[in-house]
Amino acid sequence: MAITDIDQRNSMLAAIIEFSEDAIISKDLNGYITSWNKSAERMFGYTAEEAIGRNIELIIPEDRKSEEKVIISNLREGRPIEHFKTIRLTKSGQLIHISLTVSPIKNSLGVVTGASKIARDITQQVLAEELISQHATRLELINAFGRKIVSHLDVQTILQTVTDACTQLSGAVFGAFFYNKIDQKGETYTLYTLSGASKEAFDKFGMPRNTEVFKATFLGNSPVRSDDITKDPRYGKNYPHNGMPKGHLPVVSYLAVPVVSHTGAVIGGLFFGHPKACVFKEEHELLVTAIASQASIALDNAKLYEDVNSLNRKKDEFIGFISHELKTPLTTLKGYLEISRDNLEVLAQVQPKLNKQVRRLEEIISDLLDISKIEAGKLDFSFSRIGLCALVKKSLDALNHADHEIEFETPATEIAVNVDVQKMTQVFVNLLSNAIKYSSPGTKITLTAGQFGSEARFTITDQGIGILPEDIERIFSQFYRVNESKDNVQGIGLGLYISRQIVDGHLGRIWAESEHGKGSTFYVSFPVERS
Ligand code: ADP
Residue 80: pLDDT above 70? Predict the structure, then answer.
């Protein structure tokens, strides 16, 4: 080959080496650097002047120094090394991932005198791989976990599993799940499960309050993750503790994630703590958030299961109760018919008693039919115009009130209202018969009717046993009967419930006021005109 050809070839190779994207380094068999291209300068931060003549150990991290011995021994035997993934150290102290290809350099006699190294920076690729593998591990964990908790239908087990797993996965020293039970002051949270700490450790501090730090979680906002919660601007704002109560488990690193139901309601929050700073990373937050959403599905399922069970229990109770209520008048009827068999005189005597039991059966069956219509959303109304006095009179006519004096106050001029006459009469009959049932014979019952603004308003006042404040709202629910009246007075606890549904259908209101032991007033009001 002519000299000029060799020169040309050498300078071409030199250009390729110089402008290669990869770092190309050569070294002798003792590891001393003999060449260092531009990419090597860029990748490792040393200039060619700084690197050439130094040992290659310059860019090998302490814990990988032994690699070089293996590389050299391979080279001596003429064995190349291809795409060896390792880590190297830059001038600024940064560790970078590289893929290394080392080939022996031989002299004209074929003896290995050194090596050329081609190093490719694969840091981004390795980080991306790490990220993918982290995601895969996280997904596996979440899936495995999801399968585990979804198979449970017991709230306590689900929450304990969730709290334990999240405490472990986040590296927290302790974790807790608090139920969201916001009262009017917005302050009631209930401790449900704990992990890594005993219940006693929390008992003396009471429940977390609606402080600035906790609020975000119980309102279902995004997770709160802090490297040092004591430095958080929201921390320490609330009296009396102004931060953690004395003796509280020390929390510096803090992570809190809301658990939100599919309806959007906040079921509660998962809280994690660690006495050291900077423990919880984004990774932990993502993991706990994913598990929290699995937990909410499991909790929704558990709630449905509980609801179904409780409905089943209620249904069984209902069947037992109604069977008993129907059987009592039937047994009485049977008894009277028995004693009056073939005896017309006795039959005539027991006639009113027979009628009473038949009426009782009719009442129960009619209430049950109403309830089934209400439950099916089929309580239909048929409106017509009637005067207030006429409406009240109809109700009084339908009632047996021989033992009570009923005082009746109505406006001087008749006021016409638009109502379902049959159903509204049923409301007044029910209220009046309650007034009779729950007060002593001979006492007075007052009924007033009048117009207040755009509303028709009725009151029914008795001087009976009265109702305790804690029962005043409950008496309008299905089957609720005050203990005091249960034993001596017949009833199945549906009248007021049905009355409320009827009044609701008139866009009105029904409520009670009472002084226990003195008497009660029931109010019914609804718009005079239906818009
Ligand atoms: P029932 O009278 O068939 O039990 P209601 O739904 O009409 O059912 O009433 C529910 C409960 O409310 C009654 O069982 C009774 O305890 C209480 N209650 C209703 N009206 C009165 C009243 N005027 N005075 C005292 N207690 C009453």
Answer: yes
